[in-house]
Amino acid sequence: MNITIAQARMIVASAMLEGGARGFKPLTVVVLDSGGHVTAAERQDGSSTKRFEIAYGKAHGAISFGVGSRALMTRAEQQSYFIAAANHAVGPLVPVPGGVLIVDEANLVIGAVGVSGDTSDNDEVAALAGIEAAGLKGIPE
Fold this sequence. Notes:
alpha+beta, five-stranded antiparallel beta sheet, 5 helices
């Protein structure tokens, strides 16, 4: 099963609303399906350049390794050579918080969301809020 376009759009809108409510800097949100394909993406006015690539890299890394980007950060701190090599082998990979796996009621991965624009921890907060608003569960680690 994959995330639906309606769920992906809800995640994007809700993540941005959460960021606004908390006073975060302008965000870019990218939602991927379980195969790593972009399902929805949006950039708030004022979100700085290259935020799409960073948000995509957070989500893509999560889908590629089956763990949230917070877990990838821990791995990067322990095995930087592996993460550097993986970046070349699997494509864009940004190992900092803000990339969250999305699972359904059976705990099957149906996609991932990447958020970029504020601190990595705040990006993750927005991602989780978006996922929750869509009635799904997020796994940041």
